[in-house]
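Hey,

Quick one before I head out. I ran the complex with adenosine-5'-diphosphate overnight. Inputs first:
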Amino acid sequence: MAFVITIATLKGGVGKSTIAINLSAALHRSRRTLLVDADPQGTCRAWAARAAETGREGPPTVVVDGRSLRRDLPQITRGFDIAVIDSPPRLGIEARAAMLVADLVLLPTVPGAADLWALRESVDVLEEARQLRPDLRCAIVLNRADRTMLTKTAREALGSYGIPVLPTVLGQRVAFGEATLTGLSVLDHAPGSAAAAEVAALADQVLSTLGGPRGSRKKTSRR
Ligand SMILES: Nc1ncnc2c1ncn2[C@@H]1O[C@H](COP(=O)(O)OP(=O)(O)O)[C@@H](O)[C@H]1O
Ligand SMILES: [Mg+2]
């Protein structure tokens, strides 16, 4: 079975697709990684199509109907070490299913008041999922953050949700938007950039939570 990471926040524009794309691309460098687009908006699908046009090798990407995710995922992820699921930005069967099939749920948020308050609903749904899946791991990822007081205050406010906040924070960086538009990850679009370093650190943190054979290295390493 693949280790399943779901990127889930019931709000649009917080960086779910950006994180799904870049995290899967980073993990793809050392693990057999599948990117699963379970959001009808199809951002990951469009990104993969753009990647295919440019001939760059990214993670294999599949589109899945969130309503049949729980049934189809074992078959779809066969042969992969890790699956990264991008999920829809609204409450529904699809978003719940994407959390229920996960081993690790990452909840991206932007450090603004409205975003932090809106995260409450996502945390509630996650808690419901954890009632059914007590082994489900989770963490909040701060995205589009900077070094201001707001980011510090956001971290403190997030403490009240009882969910760990990953030490790696993704900054507000032009490279993320540019890379996605050109069908690349920031690792390929802007190697050596701060954005690339943040994504690499995020992938390392995720890998360190994986144990056992599911986290084992690719037999044929690409790089
Ligand atoms: N860390 C970041 N720095 C700059 N722009 C970002 C960052 N994360 C996301 N964006 C941009 O914000 C917009 C929304 O991000 P997206 O990943 O599509 O959010 P979601 O999938 O949650 O709706 C996109 O235009 C994306 O390029
Ligand atoms: Mg999206």
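The radius of gyration is 16 Å.

Talk tomorrow,
K.
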